[in-house]
């Protein structure tokens, strides 16, 4: 929670066109269903800059739509200043974790970085949310399945704080 009294959550992945915009969309949907939208600020960003300004990957958007989501954020690159704007920075895999924590300038900022898979309750056999970019449609389905589980776990964790 920040001084403004809001939970500030930033989802991170490599390109910000598959996993993290899906995390952002699913978390926003869960928060809205819980009537908590005024208590949350939710965003996503990528480690790379290749897709800046783009909508999510068409496969991710299609898969999201089939599950009732509209993933429509535009990609942006993570900035060091995001450590000042967000209390919880959620990464999808270990490569993301290393990239983001290596940009932290103090332990308190490093401690803001958490792994999405640590909030899984139904699919604990996964330790990461695997990158679907070079995969097939079933890999995008898996992203949705894991994010729905983990975002619910994260939401429960934040509201219990
Ligand atoms: P994301 O997937 O990190 O889940 O957005 C990727 C998107 C793009 C690339 C890699 C992963 N890429 O290499 O362009």
TrEMBL record:
Residue span(s) of domain Phosphotyrosine protein phosphatase I: 7-157
Keyword Disulfide bond set for record: no
SUPFAM superfamilies recorded: Phosphotyrosine protein phosphatases I
EC numbers on record: 3.1.3.48
Top EC class of this enzyme: hydrolase
Keyword check for Hydrolase: yes
UniProt protein name: protein-tyrosine-phosphatase
Top-level division of the source organism's lineage: Bacteria
Family to which the UniProt record says this protein belongs: Belongs to the low molecular weight phosphotyrosine protein phosphatase family.
Organism: Segatella sinensis
Keywords: Hydrolase, Protein phosphatase
PANTHER family tied to this protein: LOW MOLECULAR WEIGHT PHOSPHOTYROSINE PROTEIN PHOSPHATASE, LOW MOLECULAR WEIGHT PROTEIN TYROSINE PHOSPHATASE
Molecular function via GO: protein tyrosine phosphatase activity
InterPro entries the record matches: LMW_PTPase, Ptyr_pPase, Ptyr_pPase_sf, Tyr_phospatase_low_mol_wt
